[in-house]
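Q: Sequence in, structure out?
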Amino acid sequence: MTDARTTTMVRKAAGRRASDEGRSRLGDLTRPIARAQRITKNRKPAILFGLVALLVAGAIGAALFGLPVRTWFEQDDQLQRLDRQLSDVQTLNAELQSEVDRLQTDAGIQEAAREELGLIPLGEDRRTVGGWPLLPADLPDGWPYVAAEQMLAARGG
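A: Exactly. Output:
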């Protein structure tokens, strides 16, 4: 005869199924809790605490996200303004450097001495010519002055 023995293993039940009692598996979570079994009998403090917690979470979110983003935009605007100022200064420096380069030549030195100091080279005669003097417009009546008035009117004076 054989000495083989058989053992039986008891398996646990697979658990409650949705069709077992005709309700969903979430029945325990969604069904109302009787007042006697509630942790707090009054819901108003819990709702108030939830609103305060939501407000605190919103403030923390604004502090961690909103304020740095606003600061980043302000810094971006300031950086663009400083870039414009830098380009203006670089343009001005380039113009000044070209002026310095021009003034370091012999012709540039002579031109600057003529304009700034009034230098007159040897053999050159300098004459200053002024504009026309202002003529009186209220001339007396009579023969020679009528012709002068007509000439002034023709000039636009």
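Residues 29-120 form one domain.
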